[in-house]
Amino acid sequence: MLDESLFPPSARFCYVKTSRREPDLQNFRHLHPLEQALVSHSVDIRKAEFGDARWCAHQALRDLGLTGEQPILRGERGMPLWPSTVTGSLTHTEGFRAAVVAPRRHVRSMGLDAEPAEPLPEGVVGSIARVGEFAQLERFRENGMTCADRLLFCAKEATYKAWFPMTQRWLGFEQAEIDLREDGTFISYLLVRPTPVPFIDGRWMLRDGYVIASAAVV
């Protein structure tokens, strides 16, 4: 479902598809106790999402040649705390979880987001889209993409996930202007100052009922 075209060449990724109805806690139960403790008071659905995404992260770390045994804890605003030599990102949504990691010597920061390939609930797009982005959404809809607004949302979420580890600062939906392209790429122009980079490159795909967006600073 995911494929390497979404990510820089040095990245490694893992994903799982799950039941949308019954939470499966198998991966959660095999996590390090410190990881389990992060969501110990959550409902089973949340534990399953968390456990699956962390399991994916450990598998991806192993593919980088790391043991995957070190717990991935949580930093400011829920940011995953990766080993010092690694950057990465996690995502989970209904029926799908994934993680991507890469060596910091090749990739400075990454973001990954996945959502069901469905239109956003009524009224939501007005709270996430900048004026200049509406024309892009209309163009995508005219070409048959009914979930273009969801794609924009994913691109902004992936952008934020790549931005925050570099800055430790919030990035609002209105603070990035997304240039969506029909070739499966996008550019996020950052409208805040100071900023470590003026823009962040991204890629997107529609696959098996999901919209998936990744962003990377190399």
Automatic annotation (TrEMBL):
Residue numbers binding CoA: R46, R54, T91, H92, D113, E157, K161, L171
Cofactor(s) in the UniProt record: Mg(2+)
GO molecular function, one term: magnesium ion binding
Protein name per its UniProtKB record: 4'-phosphopantetheinyl transferase
Organism: Corynebacterium halotolerans YIM 70093 = DSM 44683
InterPro entries: 4-PPantetheinyl_Trfase_dom, 4-PPantetheinyl_Trfase_dom_sf, 4PPT_N, Enbac_synth_compD-like
Metal-binding as UniProt keyword: yes
GO CC annotations on file: enterobactin synthetase complex; plasma membrane
Segments forming domain 4'-phosphopantetheinyl transferase N-terminal: 35-102
One Pfam family, short name: ACPS
4'-phosphopantetheinyl transferase domain sequence ranges: 110-200
Chain sites annotated for binding Mg(2+): D113, A114, E115
GO BP terms: enterobactin biosynthetic process
Keywords attached to this entry: Magnesium, Metal-binding, Transferase
Keyword Metal-binding annotated: yes
